[in-house]
Amino acid sequence: MTVVVCALASLAMVCPENVENGESISKTGACRRACPVLHSTPFPPPSFVMQARIRIAVIALGATVLVLGSALGILAARFDPNAYKSAIIERVHEKTHRTLSIGGDIRLAVYPRLGVHLGKASLSELGGKGEFAALDSVRLSFALGPLLLRQEIVIDRIELRGMRATLVRQADGSMNIDDLTAARVKPNAGERAGAAGNAGAGPARIRFAVDSIRIDNAHLRFDDRKAGRLFDIARLNIDSGPIAHGVPSRVALSANIGVDKPALNTVLIFESGFSLDRDTRRVAMTELDANLDLSSRAGIESRAKLKGSIEIDFGTKAIAAALKGKIDDSAVSGKGALRDGMLQLDIDIDRLDMARYLPRAPSAPPASDAPPGTDAAPDQPVDLSALARLRASGTLQVGELTAGGLRASNVHAVLLADAGKTTIKPLSATLYGGNGNGALSLDFTGDASSPRMALVQDLRGISLGPLLLDATGKTPLAGRGDVQLDLTTRGASTMALREALGGTAALRLRDGVIGGIDLGRMVREAKAAAGVGSGADSTGFTELSATFRIDSGVAHNKDLSASTPLLRIGGEGQVDLAHETVDLRLRCTVVPSLTGQDGPAVGTLNGLTVPVALSGPLAQMTWQVDVAALGTEAAQKMRGALPSGGKEKLKDRVKDTLGGLFPR
C-alpha cells in the first residue's frame, strides 16, 4: 500500500509526508529519506508511469465535466432569462423603432445542447403599426467550447417553427425591410482604436458557425406593388446540414409557391448538396433533385422532375443553372443564368405540345345573330401579360412541336425580350413537307393586356391543305407551293385578334383544289343560274396565285388567277377571315381546246367567259352566274360573223346559243 501511495506521489512530485501542507519536494533528498520503501526499490517502468498519468488526466477531466455540468444545471435552475424581457424589447425598439412582443417564455436548455428556447413572438412594421413577422417558437443552440475557451457565442443550430413574414415593395421600389438591411455607419479611426483598446473588456462576441438549420411550416408573402403581383410561399420546410465555409453539406426543402398574376401554384420538393465559399460569396448546389407540380386556375397542369446543379453568386447577384430531366412528356435539357435581371436560356426539348400549356375555357355556342351556315371557332381569351416584364435572351431547339393544332419539326428559335418587347428571330422549322423561316414579335409597351403582335413567315414547298386542316379544322384551299405572310394584330381574345388582323399575304400553289364550289360542273351542266355549294363540292386547279391586302380582319384581292383543265379563272373580291365569309367575283373562261369533250353546254360556251359571284360563309358558299353579262359577251363575239343589218338575227342566234343553258 505504501508503495502505491509513494508511486502516485512521485508522479505528482509531492512527498506523501508533505501532502497535507501542500509542499512539493524533489524525488531525491528529503523524499528519499521520507519514503525509504519507494526509493529503495527500482523506479517504475515507463509504461506504468504513462498509464498512471492517463488515469489521473481522465479523473481530472471527469471531475471538470461533472463540476461544469453541475454549474450549468444550477445556472439553468436559478437563472431566469424572462427577467430580461423588458430590456430586450426596449433595446429592439431603440435600435429598430419596431415593437417586439414576446408572448412565450424564454428558457435556458442544457441537454442535449446548451441553448435558448423562445415561445411565441412577433415584430411590428416600422413605427409599430401592423405585424411584420411572427413565429410560434425558436431555439438557438450554442457551441460550448468557444464559449469557455474564447468567450465567443457560436450559434451552431437554429430551429424555427411557424414563422410568418410579409415583405412589401412599394411602387417607388422601397421595401419594408430597408431599415433592417441598411448599411451600418462605419466608425472613424478614433472609434476603432478605442474599440480595439477595450476589446478585452467588452461582452462576448457572437458569430455563426451553423451546424444545421430547421424551419418548419413557415409562411412568407411578398407583396410586390411595383410589379402588381403577390407571391405566396406556404408550408415552407427546410432542413440543412452544416453551413460553413468550404464544408460540403446537404439541404432538403419543400414549399407551396403561388403567384396571383398569372394565377399559378407550384408544389416544390428538392434535395441538394451544397457548399459555401465565404470569400467569393458563392453557394454551389450539386446533385440537385427537384420535383415540381404546377397548376393554374385556367386549368393548366404540369409536372417536372429535374436534376442538375445551381450556382448562386451573392456578390454579383447572379444565378447559373444546368438542368435536365422530364417536363410532362418532354425530355428537357438546358442551361440558364440570371444576371442583372436578364435571364439567359438555352433549351433543348425532344417534343413539345403547346396546347397543354394554354388556358382551357368551355366552348361557347355560336352567336345568336350569326349568319346561317357559319361555323366560326368560338371566342377564347388570350392572356400574354406574364411576358410583359420578361427580360430574357437565348435559344430554343424542339425536335417535334405541336402548337394550336399545327405540327412542325426541327424548330429553331432565338429569343430576345426586354423593355416590354419580345422578339423571336429567326423562327425556323420543317413543316408540312416544306420549310418555314421568319420572325415573331410581341410589343407590350402600349397595353400589357393587349400586346401588338407581328408575324413574318416565308413558307416554301408546303402542303397547304393539311396545314389549314390542322390549324382551323377546315380545308377551304389545298395545294403545294409557297406562302408569304406579313401580319400584325392585337387583342385579348381569339376573335379580337382575328378582327384586328392586318398586313399582306401571297400564295402560289399547284395541283390543288378550291373547296365549297364546283365551277367545272356548274359550267359543264349549265342547268341553273344560281345555287348553293357544299362541303362535298370542290374545284381542282393546276395552278393558283393571289396576293392579299389585309385590313381589320378582311383580306382584299385584285389578282386572283387559276387554271383548271376546263377553265381559266381570274377574279377579285374579299375574304372575311374573322367571320369566315367570302365575297368574290370570278371570271371563268372556257378553254377552247376542250370543245366537245364535256357535253353540248361547254361547246356552246367555247371561248366565252362565265361571270360567277361567290358569297356567304366559306363552309356553304352561294354562287350566281351573271346571265346578262354572259349574253352580252356572246353577242359581241357573234356580231362579227353576221352580215350588216342582222341585228334581229343576232338576238335569235344568242337565244339559240344560250337557250339550253338556263331556264327561261
From TrEMBL:
GO terms for cellular component: plasma membrane. Residues 360-380 are annotated as: Disordered. Residues 50-260, 363-559 form the AsmA domain. Coiled coil: none annotated. It comes from the Bacteria. One of its GO terms (biological process) is regulation of protein targeting to membrane. This is AsmA domain-containing protein.
